[in-house]
Amino acid sequence: MSENISICPASLPMLDKAKNEGIETVFDRSKEMKTCPFGSVGTCCRNCAMGPCRVNVKGETEEEQEYGGKVGVCGATVGTIAARNFARMIAAGTAAHSDHGREVVQTFILAAKGETPGYEIKDEVKLKAVAKELGIDPQNKDKNKLAVEVGEKLLTDFGRQEGELTFIKRAPKKRQELWKKLGIIPRGIDREVVEIMHRTSIGVDQDYRSILHQGNRCSLADGYGGSMIATALQDIMFGTPIPLRSKVNLGVLKEDQVNIIVHGHEPLLSEMIVLASKDPDLLDFAGKNGAAGINISGICCTANEILMRHGIPVAGNFLQQELAIITGAVEAMIVDVQCVMQGLPRIAKCFHTEIITTSEKAKMPGTIHFEFHAHNALKIAKDIVKRAINNFSKRGKVNIPDESIDLIAGFSHETINYMLGGSFRASYRPLNDNIINGRIRGVVGVVGCNNPKTTHDFSHVTLVKELIKNDVLVVQTGCAAIACAKAGLLTPEAAKKYAGPGLAEVCETVGIPPVLHLGSCVDNSRILEACSAMVAEGGLGDDYSDLPVAGAAPEWMSEKAIAIGQYFVASGALVVFGVTFPATGSKGFSKYLFDEHEKITGGKWAFETDSIKMAHLMIDHINKKRVALGIDKKPQRVLYDMELRRELKF
């Protein structure tokens, strides 16, 4: 029955192997776990010790829920409870991305000061561009001194108490004016997270509209703060991605080599692991231990980070982290933060694999801890790689699925700009023109996680195939991108096989896939940059909300996904989630999210579990935007006779 669990051809035999050997996986635990009917729809409150309050409002009307229905011990309505829970998810997601961003900034400054061997400033062009954005003159400055100025300026965005985040200016002017009018421009990243936690504690903010107002502001601190800062500085420090070819799925593991998997989200240590794996002494040591080499691969967003900068193959996405160990071929799985399952050490005990934690913020029982510090990161990386090599001889029977497939990754904002216009005419004009002329209907971002409540990868792949079939260009990040890569959708050849005639023609002309890999979860900020560039190029309105675009997370599970979704909604986009939605227990709050919010920011949420219906919900939205822009019909071809030609004025 594993076919009902996943559509991934490499995962299926590993699931069968786990079942036959009595190894419990996330899929087994999900099947056994009874979902709380209150918590899943947002109507359980545990924000004080008078509860937890599980408010059953089944059968109540919207008016009864808001004014006369069942309430919590303190009197909180179901709308208030659902909004508080939703806002706390936004805060948690923003905190996750922003803490990642803070680590990057701090390491960036140390690298610029020469205090971190192995790190350096690689993209001086982007460094100077970012410096200009910050009001720093880059002329005649040493790149390292300039980088220190840039890093220290961006570090103030985390603790600022008043004013505006630096990168807010990247949004279209009309959108900035709207945010200013609404009072939702973030002041400082940390301040907005703290304010949500205060507002949603017992006896503070008790109006779901007001609570989501702060939710908007906090989510923008993610999109235009932590995430955008992390992406910019990672590009400068590690290199801005360019398109490259690699492989994806469990078949990238090598039977004759030391297999090291990096898993998590922060690329600070994984960059050093990649560097250490090329060290001649360590390669020689691997040979002396009977290995033909050292093979690095990735899981989750760390995989996306080292994929798009080094071409390192991807072993799989979120729900494959346990399955990778079940191959018996992994010497070490090195984890940092976010999306790392505590079930890993239990499965690793069945094999020789060692789980190695590296963050002081993320420790697990049953693992080995090598604490990461930027000032000696390369030494730590070499120690970890050496330990993995020593583990190679302890292998038992290996069962690696013969499943891997090509993908193209590395489509940063700068790369797209260059590919469409070249070095001297870099521009989004060709994209806008092909949207205007109808070859491309619009653009959809399909992002997010996997969730064992639904068939692994199915919703991602089904949704994306339906979109590109209807001439919608798809951009992806995170585990969603890995899912579609495994399905063969991230190669130029996929355009001819799966895309509609208009999109296929554009892809063939430019030489790109119909699905563009933009990076990791924090790199959703690249989508914001791309949308800003589309607006600035002209012809598609003067705000995000005018664009024929939408976003979706069909298999989401993390609070980070809620934060991402909210900053796109606050930016004026339609965002559709699948699997479940954590606010449907309140009719009033759901109506506010799914309908009324559009009147405030131009963006709204939607919820749909059927992938085909989800695709057409977004296609209908895109079509409406095309009508509003007046580009829904192709201009009629007119055959001019001599009389009509005389009337032409030049």
What radius of gyration results from the CA coordinates? 25 Å
Low-confidence stretches: none
- How many β-strand runs? 16
CATH class of the largest domain: Alpha Beta
Provide the spatial order of strands within the biggest beta sheet.
6-5-4-7-8-9
Termini gap: 71 Å
Specify the overall morphology.
globular
Strand content: 5-15%
Q: What structural category arises from helix and sheet content?
A: alpha/beta
Biggest sheet character: 6 strands, parallel
CATH topology descriptor of the largest domain: Rossmann fold
Annotation field: number of helices? 27
**Mean residue pLDDT:** 94
Give the tally of structural domains. Answer: 4
Give the second-level CATH assignment, the architecture of the largest domain.
3-Layer(aba) Sandwich
**Percentage of helical residues?**
40-55%
What does this molecule look like?
This protein is α/β, with parallel strands linked by helices. The protein folds into 4 domains: 2-68, no CATH class; 78-238, Substrate Binding Domain Of Dnak, Chain:A, Domain 2 (Up-down Bundle), CATH 1.20.1270; 244-394, 3-Layer(aba) Sandwich (Rossmann fold); 410-629, Rossmann fold, CATH 3.40.50.2030. Helices cover 48% and strands 10% of the residues. It has 27 helices and 16 strands. Strands 6-5-4-7-8-9 form a 6-stranded parallel β-sheet. It has a 6-stranded parallel β-sheet with strand order 13-12-11-14-15-16, with helices on both faces.
